[in-house]
Amino acid sequence: MISELNEREQTILGKLSENGAVSVSALAQDLGVSEVTIRGDLKELEDKGWLFRTRGGAAPAIHRDIIERQRERLEQKNAIARAAAALVRDGDVIMIEAGTTTALIARHLMGKRDIHIVTNSTLVFSNARMNPSLQITMTGGEFRRATESLVGPIARETISHLNVRLAFVGTDGFTLDRGITTHLMEGAEIVKAMKAHAETTVLMADSSKYGKLGFSTVLPLSELDRIITDDGLTDNAARELAEAGIVLTREPSGVKHFAV
Known about the structure:
Low-confidence stretches: none
Helix content: 25-40%
Distance between the termini: 32 Å
Order of helices and strands: HEHHEEHHEEHEEEHEEEHEEEHE
Oligomer: single chain
Mean pLDDT: 89
Number of helices: 9
Shape: globular
Structural class: alpha/beta
Radius of gyration: 19 Å
């Protein structure tokens, strides 16, 4: 993930996100290093699955929107993912829905044993594949590059035959009145299917998502068992959610928050 890349590698990905492609010569000039150094950086990023090298430059292997979203609020997302991973027990079977926050759970499962992950996320697969303690079942389905997800009837059918203890889901926004919402209706169907086949459903959403509305309503907050967010959620918002009976965790992210 982004957090494991050095500063120059992150800068290169930022330029990929902004421009859609980069050239070796332009990167060398912008970053003040040799073209040989840049070619080495591009090879490392290609080996890690972030980009494809082209003649004289590189193009992203992951959708530009995903790269940008992975760079945003990284400390908060990792804090949320650590708290979510702490809920997982040895021997658990869990579902993880596609998203840049939910995808980080797999990186925080080190030390857990015999965990079986069911997911529709290629990002989760990328994070989990090198951990021998994690068994992975991909749902199958139609691939959506903009979300690095598998959706559609095949994905839903796979989920419908499985039962898990925990389902971790994400959202584009959540409010008390409209519940959790998304811009992609196909993603909404995956969340509903996972919730229907899990004993406990946990929403993972950074505090910037509170008060935002997506196009499609997925679930009311009352149907969630827990929400994990970060300490950027205001006290007023936390109080509103608590008064509505929502089990809420606000994880310290190490990021200072200033009143405006």
